[in-house]
Amino acid sequence: MEQLTMAQALNSALRDALKDDGRVLVSGEDVGPLGGVFRVTDGLTHDFGEDRCFDTPLAESGIVGHAVGLAMGGFRPVVEMQFDAFAYPAFEQITSHVAKLRNRTRGRVELPMVIRIPYAGGIGGVEHHCDSSEVYYTHTPGLRVVTPATPQDAYDLLRDAIESPDPVVFLEPKCRYWAREPVSFDRTGTPFDRAAIRRRGTDITLIAYGPMVATALAAAEAAAEEGRDVEVVDLRTLSPVDDETIAESVRRTGRAVVVHEAAGFCGYGAEIAARVSEQCFHHLEAPVLRVTGFDIPYAPPKLESSHLPNVDRILDAIDRLQWDDQVTLAAQGSVRDA
Amino acid sequence: MAAQPQNVTGLLPAGEPVRFVAEDGTAGPPPPGYTEPSPERLREAYRRMVLGRRFDTQATALTKQGRLAVYPSAAGQEACQIAAALALRDDDWLFPTYRDSMALVARGLDPVQLMELLRGTWHCGYDPHATFTAPQCTPLATQTLHAAGLADAIRRRGEERVVLALIGDGGTSEGDFHEALNFAAVFHVPVVFFVQNNGFAISVPLAKQTRAPALAYKGVGYGVASEQVDGNDLVAVLSVLDHAVAHARRGGGPFLVEAHTYRMDAHTNADDATRYRDAAEVERWRAADPVRRLETHLRERGVLTEEDVAADAAAAEEFAAGFRARMNAEPEVDPLGLFAHVYAEPTRQLAAQRETLRAELAAQEG
Ligand SMILES: Cc1ncc(C[n+]2csc(CCOP(=O)(O)OP(=O)(O)O)c2C)c(N)n1
Questions:
Q1: Domains, chain A, ranges and CATH?
Q2: Which residue ranges does the record annotate as region Disordered (chain B) (predicted)?
């Protein structure tokens, strides 16, 4: 297997999709000769021609709206938004049209398109280059929202997304673009709509996705040194969410912490915490906790590290999972017995 | 209400970019309808161009030392940058982009405050109300609507001020630019939209951006008077901007100016321009260097002496040294400041989050 960075794995997925399906088209700002600002489309114009991978005029609403028309006309467009915050001009197209066209037409109009968005922080980017915009999309019925945490998943999920009959918002964690691992192209990995258990554990379920999976795994290692056996669930698909994997895990461990970069208030973790409470209430030993970014506009580069969730904050949350209650309850029990 | 234009007369730009001084520095016949700015203003423009260019190379150098997160250079666009600053009164408003730090230095903003955005200590380091300068804008073309709105505020208050919004060629493809032209025209407000067409939007050349014969033609469809100008001829850019600003100030409504110029450096220090353009093309534009062109012109006019040139260079050097020294000091940042200005008063929730961070920082120190 080849060692690939996430950016290269995404590039391979686009290449293979362009090769396998003549309807696939790649478009966006600087995706042509430059290969995209993160080089995800590197060489595609050269190898597949300008017809298949092309620069558009600089207008995100235009890029997405144009792709809607291409998809209605039988193509499978894959568009790139250059950065998270620069997808906002396309918000109307995404929420009012991409998400709804199937429903509005009783299923007669299908939009098999992918909107790739480099997202989230951790790269010292100046303002508007670091937003965690996932819930704008997950709160919009009709969109599938996925985010890979590893190069292998980047390949598999992007191939799946391009083949999906539904529109997919594909969030690429920028800080993981340069992470490297062996990547296989046989597509035998985790299915599209399923979460993956990245680390098995018995004491706590740590739920993360995209940029925070690596941080969660590091926290799990650190917790192991303190004698706590942490299971790490990588959601992969944010919408629809894989409740089953989450619930199965939390019922085993009895404790859950959700981690994400985005602001906590009305964040994705709120949804997960609610679901875990609903589905695992009788198995829970402690409230579900969230470790998130603060409720502030994304911090400037020099203050980014104060804002982002890190291993220590996750360990703090783990410590707060009412471990002492068992002891207390047991102690009370023995008093009563006496 | 202003009278509805009945036809395109008076709105259309000149067929060729307005130019006073040829690439080799020789003055041609004055273009019809425009007057050459006074020798004093041109002399001052030269001084600020030399300073601006030196500031720009210093800023790029600071990225290499890790003192700036990123820097988008305006090298090659000095005539546009300096003319934009000089065409305005101190209390006129300027709406700049990330590309326009040089114009803000020429406007007299403190370079270190100005660099907070790119240094990464905050998102905007200067006071927009004190400097009549909006925060440098990154989401493309959005500032043009703000400029139209602020110009409408000026109109409603009966003030005599003008707003100038800067934008790049790529930005003119965004919907907001078109909405801004239309709003400005419909409300007949004193705003000048100044497009610096530097040939590229990152890697994308103008030919992939538009089929318009020139971006200046985009004004006509909205009823906005428009002009195109040689963006490397300071005399022409300043003359045309003077005209546009005067038009807006006397109640003539919005004005669109397109300057044809060239981005000599990569998009930013992080970009590799060799992936999408020829070194030969860049070399050809070197011949059109705006600073040398003005220098030759002013020397021929007897407005600029050998000693002046040396003095301006020395002053620019001194400015750059001061800037460098201040930037080399490790900046002070306060993590607790993250919570300060999200709302007029911190919410209870933010106060609690601030306390969490404060305790965390204290624990790290202890
Ligand atoms: C809405 C939006 N989309 C994309 C970007 C990313 N981006 C930053 S600069 C740039 C190119 C802009 O080109 P142009 O308007 O010609 O100005 P220049 O950079 O050449 O001064 C792009 C695509 C952005 N800042 N905002």
A1: 2-183 (3.40.50.970), 196-327 (3.40.50.920)
A2: 1-38
